[in-house]
Amino acid sequence: MTQPTYQQPLYKDPARSTDERVSDLLAEMTVAEKVGQLGSAWVFELLDGLTFSEPKAGRLMAHGIGQITRIGGASNLRPADSARLANAIQKWLVDNTRLGIPAMVHEECCSGYMALSATCFPQAIGVASTWNPEIVEQMTAVIKTQMRAVGAHHALAPVLDVTRDPRWGRVEETLGEDPYLVARMGSAYVQGLQSDDWREGIMATGKHFVGYGMGEGGMNWAPAHIAPRELREVYLHPFEAAIKTAGLATIMNGYHELDGVPCGANRGLLTGILREEWGFDGLVVSDYFAVDQLAAYHRVATSKEDAARTAIEAGIDIELPSTDCYSDALVHEVERGAVDMALLDEVVSRVLRVKFELGLFENPYVAVEDAPQVFDTADQRALARAIARESIVLLKNEGDLLPLDKKIPSVAVIGPNADTVRNMVGDYAYPAHIESLLEADNDNPLGLPRPDRLEVVADFVSMISVLDGIRARLGPETQVRYAAGVETVLGESTEGFAEAVEAARQSDVAILVVGEKSGLTDDCTCGEARDRAELGLPGVQQQLVEAVVETGTPVVVVLVSGRPQSIPWIAAHVPAILHAWLPGEEGANAIADVLFGDYNPGAKLPISMPRDAGQVPVFYSHKLSGGRSHWKGDYVELSTKPLYEFGFGLSYTHFEYGDLNLSAVEAGAGESVEISLTVRNTGERAGDEIVQLYVRDAASTVTRPVKELRGFKRVHLAPGESKTVTFTLAVNQLAFYNMDMDYVVEPGTIEVMVGSSSDDIRLTGSFEITGDVTDVSEDKVYFSEVALS
Question: 1 pLDDT band (50/70/90 cuts)?
Fold first, then answer.
């Protein structure tokens, strides 16, 4: 007798097309199973201690689940155990739910995969200071490798917010003030993280859509007051560029509102612009708690049911970090007809499509024993060091005080950030988020589930302090004296000043390592929800610097901070200043490399440094009527100019620009102009120069910025060496939204400026745009091509 052959469901057949598989699976699903694919669960909701709990899984995932939240980033699991837990969760879903649909796992990775033992790179604002898209791709390739090894599929990065308000605590997570720089560096981030084959890549998430970096008063979650033209030309631009040039896979809404409409409820943004206008076909995920926030915070919804309906109709596909409104509340709305079943099917189909493309139905598991082998290797640490070195900005070097001689007889190392590793990392580094979860466990303002057996792990990755980095660089003949001066960045006691002053007085140079502590907890001064009204050094650090300067010992200030600081007194009285941002696990070595001449700094500021918070926003690409106070020019108290402008950064050598040549004096829409120049290292040290191309529209039908970045290239030159840099500038890059909000190229004069910063323009030229006013909305060009010869 012939045995009957088991016929597996069509959706489990990898030989079938993705469309066929999605359609077949969708037809099998109940409403509860469909809604289950739009929800999520914190990893610790599924654990007893550090052990996977099947009873908890049964309560939370009986109908399946869309995503698991931060297996590595919200636990104390190291790579092998993290991979093992990911496998256990997937196996439970495959074996114990009716349809056996695996989950996606998402993690944070703003400055590296945010987990124990993962490589901790410099925070994003430091990465932006490199002006080096190639090294960004190398960084995110490492992140991809590490996340894939532990069973993750989805990264909640990069932050594509353009920000011009350093009071905002999350400035450090951004790539700065300029839409071109943010778009170029952000797209590189996406390209390195994703892959043509989704079974190998990690889905990147552009956040926070849109305008989140310009909240009222520099405050997190606050309304952003942005006009429609500015919204499109500045704040939407990086998202559009990342989607069109890098295939950005997912988008996350901002918490804030625009003109009375929270972004999570804004169908015009999430569906109109994103899907209908740009053709985005990826996933839209909610920022954490943002769906419930529509009712609990913004009050544009009256219940969880109302919030769920509002969010899904606006365009949010998946609720993170835990199933709340996209639960029985959404099931109820569908069953009573308030949410169209066709809309639910459309959203669920997008989620299922991604899961099929990720290969989850064929193999949701990872090789546990292989995971630790790709974590924090020698090559990865070398890359972290290279990025940290490239990110350090030399702001001042009066009398060529730097680099210091390694044979210097004595050095005083002073300041609250001198002998700490914790303050070297950003708010989306592993320890900061564990601290935040533990703080929430105490007062629980967001209604978080309570983690069990979670603790801060001091050795989350191997690091040394700046003090130890300096000691390691110097020989036994140099005496290194250490005095904190003040114990913490927020400390108010001056009792330690005397020891610090005496250490400086007895030394040949004093290195003051000052700045901020990044994170989300109350002892932090920058990071998410750590917004500031003032931009000077927190606590009594300014007074500490002043006291040390009064000794007459030469002073070097090293800023370890996530935001540009307002330091006019220091800029006037201290001979040498480095901005090291939040440089990550190899930051101490990178700082020592720069201090003692093993590396020549070449970074440039990605955001202007204000003289005072009262100037904010201060940015280079203001309008003709901006940046000055009518005919008087300056404020009563101070200049309207920044302390250090966008694109500024010094070197231990000098660069000369020359031979500007434009390939054409006229060009029309759809055409390009090649702009070439030579840059020469005229000093005695090898170094990097970041050549910056700016343009200005001389006259137009709507006002235009005084200058706009349209290209850049980091160039390494040996002493005496010169290279030719050629930018291919498409005329369509010079389009803007006109009076009718059409995206057009207008005829007229374009002024070309090439220089070492937005203020330090070395070469100028011009060409004419010819022809009629031309709508180029279907033929946008986002970046200039750059060649070296």
Answer: very low
Nearest partner of 253 among 311, 329, 301, judged by Cα? 311
Which two tokens mark 202?
């990690």
Q: What 3-state DSSP class applies to 39?
A: coil
Q: Beta strand pairing status for 205-209 and 250-253?
A: parallel
> Catalytic residue among 81, 178, 287, 427, which?
287
Question: ∠428-432-437 over CA atoms, to 5°?
Answer: 105
* Domain boundaries of the chain, sorted by first residue: 382-615, 655-788
Return the structure tokens found at 325: 């409104």
pLDDT (tens digit per residue) in 550-562: 999 999 999 999 9
CATH label, 382-615, candidates 3.40.50.10800, 3.40.50.1700, 3.40.50.720, 3.40.50.2300: 3.40.50.1700
CATH of 655-788, one of 2.40.50.320, 2.70.70.10, 2.120.10.30, 2.60.40.10: 2.60.40.10
Looking at residue 721, its amino acid is: E
Contact assessment for residue 609 and residue 635, using Cβ atoms and an 8 Å cutoff? no
Amino acid at 162: V
Residue 112 has φ and ψ, to the nearest 5°, of: 115, 155
Quote the CA–CA distance of 92 and 314 in Å, as a whole number: 33
Buried b (16+ CB within 10 A) or exposed e, 135-152: bbbbbbbbbbbbbbbbbb
| Residue 379: active-site member | no
| 745 confidence band (pLDDT: 50, 70, 90) | very high
Q: Would you call 530 exposed, middle or buried from its count of C-beta atoms within 10 A (0-12, 13-18, 19+)?
A: buried
pLDDT, average across residues 756-778: 97
pTM: 0.96
**Alpha-carbon span 354 to 63, nearest angstrom:** 19
Question: Which tokens go with 238?
Answer: 């990086």
Q: At what angle do helices 79-96 and 133-149 cross, to 10 degrees?
A: 60
- DSSP secondary structure, 700-759, as one string: -SS--BS-EEEEEEEEEE-TT-EEEEEEEEEGGGG-EE-TTS-EEE--EEEEEEEESSSS
**H-helix or E-strand spanning residue 691:** strand 687-697
Could you tell me if 371 and 82 are in contact, meaning their C-beta atoms sit under 8 angstroms apart? yes
Separation CA 395–CA 417 (nearest Å):
19
Extract the tokens encoding 602.
């070449």
Say which DSSP state 224 is in. B
The more confident residue out of 768 and 458 is 768
Q: What is the dihedral of CA 73, 76, 78, 81, to 10 degrees?
A: -100
